[in-house]
Design goal:
The complex is a heterodimer.
Chain A: H1 6-9, H2 17-27, E1 35-41, E2 49-57, E3 60-68, H3 80-90, E4 100-108, E5 111-117, H4 136-155, H5 158-161, H6 176-191, H7 197-208, E6 218-220, E7 224-225, E8 229-232, E9 235-239, E10 246-248, H8 251-254, E11 257-258, E12 264-265, E13 271-273, H9 275-286, H10 292-319, H11 325-345
Helix pairs in contact in A: 4-9, 6-10, 7-11, 10-11
Chain B: H1 7-22, H2 29-77, H3 85-96, H4 106-129, H5 131-134, H6 138-159
Helix pairs in contact in B: 1-2, 2-3, 2-4, 2-6, 3-4
Chain lengths: 349, 171
Amino acid sequence: MRPTDPLIDGPEAELDVAELQRRIASRWPHRSDVSVVEVLKFPRGVSRETWFIDVAWADGTRRLTLRRDLPGGANIPTTLQFEYDVYRLLQDSDVPVAGVLWFDEEPLDGRPYYLRELVEGSWEIPHFMDPDPRYDELRIECSKEHMRKLALVHTCDWEALGFGRILPVPPSPERAPLTALDRIEAMLAEFQIEAFPEATEALEVLRETAPSHVPRISLLKGTNGIGEEVWRDGRIVAMSDWELAYLGDPASDFAHIQRLKPKVHDADGRLVWSLEHAIEYYEEISGIPVDMERVRYYQRFDAFETLLYTHNSAVPLANRTDLLVRRGWSSTEVLYFARRRLAETAGIL
Amino acid sequence: MTVHPRTDELVDSIRWSFEAFVMPDLTDEYAISVAHTIRNLLQHVSLRIQLEGPALDEHRRELRSVLSDIREFAEVSQCAALADVPGRVNAALEADGPDAVPPPGVVDLGEKVVALRWALDGALRSLQAAKGELGGDERYVAVRSAIRDCLGRQLEREAAWITPAFSGRRR
């Protein structure tokens, strides 16, 4: 039999529905006639594969989400098990997340996977990007909702929930930025196939300029905002995309907000809402001080994280283990701009 | 051999045909998303075919030059943190070899640059470790400045095949 050659055969992008159905049925022996009635591959997201699975049995239905790595591995260097564990540990917290069912280490189509409940909603907020001023109030309300949920994440008792067992714990709040830098540098070294001297230059600057007045160590969401959470009726009903979560300075999450930083002016042209206003609101409800100097630091830091996961995308292409074209985009354009941002931090550009 | 159609002409032909005949017929959301990424990357590849060879060649020459500067500085500095730098730089330059005739293809040239950049990164880390001892030395400042200039010029060269390629819808 000819061995599988990704150059000839292409990625094994399909889902073995019959096998999945068998496994779900074996986990639910008390339900009869379990069947997978519909599967849909989610077109967005580049880190892992996401499938929506509709399951029916004799007297019920359930909508699930299946997550697994891409055929040649995830586009990000944290494991699928880590992602599952974050969800699992948050089940007993006030942070809204989808319920998890199980992590199946027995490969399906050659890959482990996990299942969680599908939370009805959308990653988009209708009219949020519509510049019509009649949506200004919507923009402000969504920003406040976002701040309330970030406050929940940052004030949760991560120690009691068990996050110290799956993430490096900074020895003190002041050391949190350096612990985070060390972690990313170590993760990069595990798979790095070429050097980035501009990143080495920037790391020196990031270490020398790391904020020392960090108020506390919090669980951090990592990427957050539009495209990273599930919204329904103007509320975040589930926080999603936890693969870049870590323990550190709460200010970091404000540097990772995706598109949810509206600027709103009133009829007289006065700025009535912005990231600074959102942070003030957050400080009131969380009691955690966040200054823009720290946020700007983590915006520079963010380029190093981007370099980490975009370079990780290049490895399966170089090894010919996964030729998904998204990896090509991530490891060219996105990586290039991360290097430029690091070069700016280092004073190269 | 024949030269035409050249590789850049072929890639442009593939992209045009893909946009004209395949993309309009796509209905599946995921397939459309992947198609946009393919179109962007074909633009990117077309530009790299034209521009990458000379850029890599120039970067390689600059890397060799800056590594030689670092070696010279490390030798005269007599700094313990830089003690193994001359040996490592020599090894990298020897492995890189003389300018080949005929010149290497873009793939081989790329690998030569990758090896030199590893050597530069290693030397840079040693220089960073010596900053406390040598940071005030103007030769140290000059060598660090030469490294940054070399890296900056390469980033500017690469912009030529990034910015124009990734235009329009991404995914």
